[in-house]
Design brief:
The structure is a homodimer. With about 375 residues, the first copy, chain A, is α+β, with helices and mostly antiparallel strands. The first copy, chain A, has 3 domains: about 10-80, Arc Repressor Mutant, subunit A (Orthogonal Bundle), CATH 1.10.10.10; about 90-130 and about 235-340, 2-Layer Sandwich (Beta-Lactamase), CATH 3.30.450; about 140-230 and about 345-370, Enolase-like, domain 1 (2-Layer Sandwich), CATH 3.30.390. Chain A has 13 helices and 10 strands. The first copy, chain A, has helices spanning about 10-25, 30-35, 45-55, 70-80, 90-100, 105-120, 175-190, 200-210, 215-230, 240-245, 250-265, 265-275, 325-345; strands at about 60, 70, 125-130, 140-145, 150-155, 160-170, 235-240, 280-285, 295-305, 310-320. In chain A, strand 1 and strand 2 form a beta hairpin. In chain A, helix 1 (about 10-25) packs across helix 3. The model of chain A is unreliable at about 345-373 (pLDDT under 50). Chains A and B meet through strand 4, strand 5, strand 6, helix 10 and helix 11 of A and strand 4, strand 5, strand 6, helix 10 and helix 11 of B. The structure holds a DNA duplex (30 and 30 nucleotides).
DNA sequence: TTTAGCACTAATGTGTCGCGAGTGCTAACT
DNA sequence: AGTTAGCACTCGCGACACATTAGTGCTAAA
């Protein structure tokens, strides 16, 4: 393991370099370190130590006769071992409480609010992700009949969310047939994950629908696409303008590329979904393996309830971000969000107290979230 | 009216200045104009003309001994009177067709795709707006019962969209009571616009619900917020990175401010909703009366069907944007989108073929749109 | 009314210079 | 052996002077 061979003094110096550079954004020299409390040696000694730290890869020099700047490895080590707990100010805590607590609404809203808070507290770009989910299923179908050629198919998913799709029929069907279809769907499709809607299921459906068999296929297709679409993960950024505050020293083309990648969304979604575990992830520079983020750091943490990841909130900032504050903020935010959604009386408290469609029972064990729209 | 006193030659010169500056982004001098076809006088004459144009406010000089740059008024006049029709390339048309035609899905999706197209074709930032609607109402309520403390209230709006809200009850209620509530809602609230849900309505509801009166108020509040929230207008940007390509000569703080304003969304929504008529709007510089957009131009056009504005797509770019191309692109895009949604068989074809809730009848005269989710 | 010519202006680019912050190295010191 | 003082060296950076250049306005002639 790296970093085990560092003397206490080296750690102290590395820590000081990182923190000074995070704060001021400039290469830090031996003299400025010397007058720091806790260091009792001369600038020459510090120079020697820094030279060695550079040798080992923790620091680097923009050019001869500039101070040192932490390398990616330097930040890594700092985050892993040197970080001091940041105590959030009461102002910050109040801000979180007042804004977040007022949102008892949809999870989406809460996530967005949390991302905005993350951005405004840390002064970096905040992000909220509604993660890709595997194997969502519909626990119940409803129809809202509009006219003989149109109805809205409403699906309550296994997670308690609601997805609705407008369906247009090529040939008109009377109300009862549609309601029959709905019943059939509830009997045959409810509780089945999108990927396991297969031919036998469809044939069953068609058999039930008798003369209306032709309308089954397009409807199943609609259901399928609704589920997978809903499933697709969503990324929302807040405080994009703060990207400029720190990457202005970078080339504008680079920034433009970064913005493009962010707008694409898939890279970030991939990163977020790749991370395992319930803990904070910190991706520094190339660790993200996204070319354009080599000069950025990404900190994020999933919001977990009963073992399910309901969302992710995080912060995107420069390599020299204030990791202590960001980590603390993210953790606090996640905590608050989990508290809020935990405060909900569970929608599906136990396999016993169940929604009407018995079929769906086995899919509802853990789903207790409550977004919709 | 301005601009009537301009000689043909002045117009020619103004046009040339604008177009040259749009293309190259640099102040344009008398010499470079001279060698343009269609101008048969010497640079000195052009200088005189330009001096007069500056006098009149159509041109301005960044400093002595630089060329001239169009003023805001200059652009205005150019757009109003000098613009030449831009013929879209077949490549561009194909791009639109292939991408747009494949989206037969939700209006939201179509709008987003159109905005992306606008951005990629024009190389500026594209925007799509789902406009604020006035007086949406619920034409029908449905409930999806989950358990005795939870149900999902599903509302089919007067426009045929579906909004759903999860409702948590502080005290459990049996299924029948919820269904009764739903019936009552359909009787008393369906067809009423959010703003006309008043005390008498609520009292009526409470009377019907008898012992369950206490749950009425929060539910009405939910309905109200769902409607106004849904009603709130939505803005999506695409190609934000292209903002950098042209505003890099601006101060980075300014750009940051602009991004902030865009993220806020309300300014843009206001601008878009303020515009009347079905035509393209072109807001140049201060015409938007948004401080931070003084150096930007906004071009947008509503998507209209049967007299209803279903969305707006537009482009945000620098003052020196390629108005000819942008205008043509936006108009073409809007045309394509209208064509696509026009192809839908109308959901509410006539006041006769109506959704079950008779109450809602009078709200459905024109609603023929079909988004959902 | 147009044009050629000329003096003038301001931005832009280039080269030189000195300053200052910071380093590495060596030699003396504990 | 580790620490420190001292010193020579290296860059980056801002300042200044200077030439260049693209463009102007004005005047006087066509």
């Amino acid at each position: 393991m790296y970093g085990k061979d560092l003397s206490e003094r080296k750690k102290l110096i590395l820590k000081a370099v990182v923190e000074s550079h995070i704060e001021l954004g400039e290469p830090v020299g031996s003299k400025s370190l010397q007058q720091l409390p806790g260091i009792k040696c001369s600038s020459a000694t510090i120079r020697n130590e820094m030279a060695e730290l550079e040798e080992m890869g923790y620091l680097e020099q923009p050019h001869t006769s500039a101070g040192r700047v932490p390398s990616q490895l330097g930040y890594r080590f700092y985050v892993d071992q040197l970080l001091e707990h940041y105590a959030m100010t009461t102002g910050e805590i109040n801000q979180i409480n007042s804004i977040l607590k007022s949102k008892t609404a949809e999870l989406d809203q809460i996530l967005l609010a949390a991302s905005k808070l993350a951005s405004s507290i840390t002064n970096y770009t905040g992000l909220a992700v509604k993660p890709k989910r595997s194997s969502v299923s519909v626990s119940r179908f409803e129809v809202a009949y509009i006219d003989e050629s149109n109805f809205v198919l409403i699906m309550v998913t296994s997670l308690g969310n609601v997805v609705s799709k407008h369906v247009r029929l090529s040939e008109p069907r009377p109300r009862q047939r549609i309601e029959l279809l709905c019943e059939a769907l509830n009997k045959l499709v409810a509780g089945i994950a999108a990927e396991s809607i297969n031919l036998p299921v469809i044939m069953n459906l068609e058999a039930v629908m008798e003369s209306d068999a032709p309308i089954v296929a397009p409807i199943v297709k609609t259901i399928y696409s609704a589920l997978t679409e809903y499933d697709g993960g969503e990324l929302q950024l807040s405080g994009i303008n703060r990207l400029l505050q720190y990457s202005d020293y970078e080339s504008p083309e680079h920034l433009s590329e970064l913005l493009g990648t962010l707008e694409q969304k898939d890279e970030i979604l991939r990163l977020v979904s790749e991370s395992t575990g319930e803990d904070v992830s910190v991706l520094i520079g190339t660790e993200s393996s996204v070319q354009v983020m080599n000069n950025s750091a990404l900190v994020f943490k999933p919001i977990v309830k009963d073992g399910k990841t309901l969302g992710v909130i995080g912060v995107l900032g420069p390599l020299r971000m204030d990791y202590a504050k960001v980590l603390e903020t993210i953790e606090h935010l996640c905590g608050s969000v989990e508290e809020i959604i935990g405060g909900y009386s569970p929608i599906f408290p136990s396999p016993a107290a169940l929604p009407p469609s018995d079929k769906a029972a086995n899919d509802l064990r853990k789903g207790k979230n409550d977004t919709d729209e």
